[in-house]
């Protein structure tokens, strides 16, 4: 009976997705991506205290290694030729791979220093960073509303940094360090999205996820001071590597073929909403008032900016 119900639900879902247009399917993919991305914080809170304290780079190593292995297996099933891809992808492919590596490494290390909510709110600067980078590289016009949104977001971030030690759970210096590391995530994300937007239709960017994860794992391995993970830690990091990193990043590359760089970044903001919710419900990590206030300003600025953009389509020069 249960199997029949699941099969019927799956059939209806397949029919529903088939009826959607390419753009709507891409939006749905990005919603799934954000949902999977948002699991990182709550799952990381179940890692052993010893690993969290002594094995920050080990966490990066295991998660990135499992992500690289997963993507490699998926590509190998399709007869992937690494040498040919490197020749075709060239500099844009390597830039994208380095951006993935930066995001994979900075995100998990930041979580070891500061709260899930703060890391996610800083990551939410991605849309604005993407818009600014598009302006600098491709002369995309940036309207006044975006600069206003950037100012409001800066106020929110300043408030978060000024009250970094409010929670008492970590030293203020640790929180500031974590937020500085987390700031690398939106920067790398913006560079990656602009690269995908410019060259994504010329060749397959999915292998950049594998290369980025490999670079991240290699860098972490060099920086590690030894292995501290137990079997449960390795299992949790394998789950993160496959379902929170490898799979959603592959889906994001596919969605970026139909969506603009700003749209991808905007839909990724769902992670900012879901991440603290899972951390609160699954790990009891209640956001501080400073994080809520500053985070609300950041997210409100971003959402208002993108809502206005939909009413007044942006013209490019």
Separation of termini?
59 Å
Strand content: under 5%
Overall geometry comes to globular
Total helical segments? 16
On the 0-100 scale, what is the average pLDDT? 81
Which regions have little confidence, pLDDT < 50, spanning 5+ residues?
Answer: none
Order of helices and strands: HHHHHHHHHHHHHHHH
Topology:
Blueprint: H1 2-19, H2 22-37, H3 40-44, H4 49-54, H5 56-76, H6 82-111, H7 116-123, H8 126-138, H9 144-162, H10 172-182, H11 184-199, H12 206-223, H13 231-255, H14 261-267, H15 270-283, H16 289-311
Question: What is the structure about, briefly put?
Answer:
The protein is mostly helical and 317 residues long. The chain contains 16 helices and no strands.
Overview of the structural elements:
- It is a single chain.
- The protein has 317 residues and is mainly α.
- The chain contains 16 helices and no strands.
- The radius of gyration is 20 Å and the shape is globular.
- It starts with a helix and ends in a 6-residue tail after the last helix.
Structure keywords:
mainly alpha; 317 residues
């Amino acid at each position: 009976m249960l199997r029949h119900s699941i099969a019927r639900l799956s059939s209806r879902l397949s029919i529903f997705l088939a009826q959607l247009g390419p753009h709507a399917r891409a939006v749905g993919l990005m919603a799934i991506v954000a949902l999977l991305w948002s699991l990182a914080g709550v799952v990381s809170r179940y890692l052993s205290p010893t690993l969290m304290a002594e094995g920050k780079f080990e966490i990066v190593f295991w998660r990135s290694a499992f992500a690289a292995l997963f993507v490699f297996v998926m590509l190998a099933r399709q007869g992937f030729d690494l040498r040919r891809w490197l020749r075709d992808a060239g500099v844009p492919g390597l830039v994208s791979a380095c951006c993935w590596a930066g995001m994979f490494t900075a995100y998990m290390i930041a979580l070891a220093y500061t709260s899930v909510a703060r890391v996610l709110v800083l990551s939410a600067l991605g849309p604005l960073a993407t818009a600014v980078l598009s302006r600098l590289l491709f002369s995309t016009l940036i309207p006044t509303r975006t600069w206003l949104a950037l100012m409001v977001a800066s106020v929110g971030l300043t408030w978060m940094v000024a009250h970094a030690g409010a929670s008492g759970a970590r030293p203020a210096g640790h929180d500031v360090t974590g937020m500085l590391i987390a700031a690398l995530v939106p920067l790398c994300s913006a560079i990656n999205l602009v690269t995908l937007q410019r060259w994504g239709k010329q060749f397959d960017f999915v292998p950049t996820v594998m290369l980025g994860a490999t670079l991240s794992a290699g860098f972490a391995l060099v920086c590690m001071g030894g292995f501290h993970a137990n079997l449960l830690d390795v299992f949790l990091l394998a789950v993160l590597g496959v379902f929170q990193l490898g799979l959603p990043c592959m889906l994001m590359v596919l969605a970026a073929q139909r969506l603009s760089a700003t749209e991808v970044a905007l839909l990724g903001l769902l992670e900012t909403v879901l991440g603290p919710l899972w951390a609160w419900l699954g790990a009891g990590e209640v956001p501080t008032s400073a994080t809520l206030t500053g985070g609300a300003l950041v997210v409100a600025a971003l959402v208002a900016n993108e809502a206005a953009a939909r009413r007044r389509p942006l013209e490019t020069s």
